[in-house]
């Protein structure tokens, strides 16, 4: 591992670009875009092809449908709450009014459940139309009338996109900031994600 100090990022940029190109060629990766942030400096670099069908080049601002990658970016700041003792608290402690159609189930869902998928929320078909800064709030409020549970919280594991949305709403409430605001997150990945989420 190479340790960088001060303004070392510009010095390492050519080396990083070479390594990315070599990796892409060796492993038949058509395109790659990534970013590095260090000591207040940021570098974003792209290599190869973004779309093999059209031949469009990969650019630093190429957008992606990142889907489940957002789960990692949501889970990371939630896990930081471990140090503050929030992981084993009920979600309802932070989201008053959090409810599901199954009576009492929401009260038994702990903060750890939405990020690890044993929450039991049956939300696969819960797709409200809300957009913008209040989308997560609207989604969580809609759970009370539209979603029950598949099992007792903590009893089984079942992939739960609804739980991840609850986790995002928890972060909004605990931090007091809207989900896409990059200033809320210490991770440089969140700053990039926020830019992609804003869109046109």
Please describe what this structure looks like:
With 200 residues, the protein is α+β, with helices and mostly antiparallel strands. It has 2 domains: 9-57, no CATH class; 69-198, DD-peptidase/beta-lactamase superfamily (Beta-lactamase, 3-Layer(aba) Sandwich), CATH 3.40.710. The protein has helices at 9-26, 69-80, 91-94, 112-116, 135-146, 161-175, 188-198, and strands spanning 31-38, 41-51, 56-57. A 3-stranded antiparallel beta sheet has the order 1-2-3, with helices on one face. Helix 2 packs across helix 6. It is elongated and about 60 Å long. Residues 188-200 have low confidence and may be disordered.
